[in-house]
Each structure stands twice: as C-alpha cells, then as structure tokens.
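Checklist before submission:
- one chain only
- standard amino acids only
- sequence pasted in full

Submission:
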Amino acid sequence: METKKRIRKTLMALIMAAALVAAGYGISPAVKGNDIPVPEVAKISETPMVPANFSDLAEKVRPGVVNIQVVKTVKNAGYGVPFPFRTPFGDFFGPFSDENPHRIPEQQGVGSGFVISSDGYILTNNHVINDATQIKIKLSDGKEYDAKVVGRDPKTDLALLKAERASNLRPLQLGDSDSLKVGNWVVAIGSPFGLEQTVTAGIVSAKGRVIGSGPYDNFIQTDASINPGNSGGPLLNTEGQVVGINTAIFSQSGGNVGIGFAIPVNMAKEIVPQLEENGHVTRGWLGVGIQKITPELAKSFGLKDEKGALVSQVVKGGPADKAGIETGDVIVEFDGKKVSDMNDLPRVVASTPVGKTVAVKVLRGGNWVDREVKIAEMEQKEEVANVSTRKPLGMTVQNITPQIAKGLGLKSEAGVVVASVVPGSPAAEADIRSGDVIQQVNKKPVKDVEDFKTKIENSKDQESILLLIQRGDSTLFAALTPKKG
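Returned file contents:
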C-alpha cells in the first residue's frame, strides 16, 4: 500500500513538472535517491523580449504621423529604384504607370510622413512629392493643411515639407539609428494603399543594406509590413522614437513580402538642417572613381584582404589628384574613419564639410601612404539628359551608370536608358516605357546620350526612326514617328 502511494505521488510530481516545462518554466535536473523532483520556476525577465502589445506606443505617436495626398504629373512611371526594389509610393499610382503611361497626365497618390517640429515641418520621401502640383497633409484627428516643399534631396530620397498656417503640432522624437541592433523590435506607421494610420510591427532584419538606389545607400532592413503608401512614414523603436524613414520594398508583385527598407534617421538628421536653410544639400567631393575589391583584385594587387575602396579613376585637377592619390591606390582610412568597404567612402566624403583638409591613408604597392586632401564641393548635376530634337520625341534618356546596369541586370553600360515618357507623345504612342534600354537607332549601335542625340538629329528627315530596345530579358523594335513642325 505504501509503495502504491509513493508511486502515485511520484507520478503526480512528474505530471506537474511536465506541465511546467510545456508552459516554458524550467525544472531542477537534480534527483537524489528517492527524492521527489521539485519544479523550479524560472525567473521572468523584467523587460520581456516580446512586447505585450504596441497599443500605448501607437496611441502616443499617431498625432505626429501624417497622411500625404498629392496630385502629380507622371513623368517617370515606375523608374527610380531598380527592379525588383520598388518605392512603395511609386507603385501606388496603379495600372497606368507601367502599362499605359500616356493615358493620364495627372494622377493622385498617397504617401506618409511625420512631424518634426510643432510649427509644421514634416519629413517624408522625395519620391512622394517629386513633380507634385498639389500637396495636402492630413493629421490623425482629421485636420488638413496645404503643404509646400521646403527642400529635397533626390540622392537620399528625403524631402522636407512645411504645413501652411499650422501650429501646435505634435512632433515625433528622433532616436538614434546607430544604436539599433539586428533583432530589435520596430513599428511602422503610415498609409498603405491609402489606409491611414496603419500600424505594423516587426524586427530589424539587417543594417547597412546597399540596394543600388544611389551612392549613399545605407538602409535598415525590416520585416515590419511596408506596402505602397507607407513611403515617408516613420519606423519607430519600442520607445516611440523615430529610427528610420520607410522608403522601399523588395517585391516582384508590388506587395509586401517581408523585406522593407528604411533610411536611418541619423542620416536624415545631417540633411534636414541644410534642406531647411538652403533647400538642397551641399556635399563634399574627393574626385575619384572607386570600385569594390573582389578576391581576384585583392590577389592581383597583392592585398591581404578585401577591405577598402580601390581607386579606379582620379579626376584631373580634383582634390585627390592635387593630393597625390593615384589610380590603383586602396583607400583604407578617411579623416580617421576606417573604410572597410567601397560603399563606406561616398557617405563619409559627402558628409565632410567643404574646404576641410582631411588625412587619407592609402595602400600602394604593399606600402602605407599618407596624404592630406582639401575637400571640394560636389557640383549639383542633373542626372537625366533631355533629348532635344527638331521633331520632339517626347522622352528623356540618361547614360547607364554602373548602378543602373546592375539594377537592370545589364552586361554593359552601352546604350541609354529611358528615364521618362511624356503622355501622348510619339514615344508613348510607340509604347516606349521608362526603364527601356535603347541599344540602336536605325540599326546603328548607341554608345551614350550624346551619341543618341547625334543619331536622332541625323534621322530628322525620315518619316520614322527605328529603335532597338531591350526590355527585361527581351529585345524588340519600336518605330518612332516624330511630330512635324
């Protein structure tokens, strides 16, 4: 009888222990002799890894998140961030953007933004408001204001707006994006597909992502749901501080697949004062062309590793040239900052004050070489070259940069890429689309924009101009009939 009681008691203890294990608690592994194992409740962390909910955070920050409504002329339909990286706002414009760019000259769109000062300054993406003819912002309480563009920076895709006659707005607190760690919880708020004040949550998936959208790529990757219309909205940490500006998604369908990108707020902190004061950003210029160091290049140059930025070109008369930096040098340190990767250098140079003399350390033929460079100002250049002919074609083209070639999967940089198509123009009627690569004019190869313009001018007396176009993995001919007069 005593034995049965003891067995029953032991079984009950084991059942209890198993239940506690299933519930997430630990048990002591020590069992001595005939002692009954006693469950040991694990200590619960004072700061749980998974927040119970985000309702308090959402309630706190909603007044500072704005819905942005714009009317714009669609010039550059779907072309900006190379496929399959897409700007959520750009894709929001619907089926006319890619398939029928000539149907609607003006379209409405919705984006997001957030208040950074009580007197109405708002931060958003440049692609949200670019080419806008009208901008309105709407707060969470339903109040609406007309807004104007104070400044914008296409290279980082940031824009600063001012809500007219606004006062006593609720600005969001800016956090520190450098302190973010992979795995941290983040919250995105915006207007996906026009659904205002939508809150989604996820984690930081990666930092320092380069997606080929520009020379200063340094994105935060997150799996928080970001969709068309989220562009310009805040990415927040669990304290409700802005750590990023939602900008792009990776998608082959246009919808969220769990890979979104946000501009680090620390980058915006450097840019906003210049946008407010000057309307644009002044950047430092070193005057070099650089490339990534591959294992093969490292071996050829006798390098121990692949760190640094390999100088592939030195602009004659530029700051680097004057300082004695040469083609083949590997820049490993700039102004006391390590250059571990090629992408580190453009960002640090751009943020260096114009006129400042900085120390640059390079590796040349296995030897360390120190140089001092006086940083000059980067010229503000328009990247898109307009095609001007006697018979307007109704499109703009630009040279194919390494970034564009990579984004479009091109094997070479020969030809020109169509940047925009004017609605109702000969180019639109010939079904030429932004993102198309023009390889030939009248069966003659095209090298660059200047070559393209020359060949177009030489064809001015023809009834139609035959173009060979690459679109994705396919090539096709297009016959342009220029307008007369």
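Reviewer check: The longest helix spans residues 2-22.
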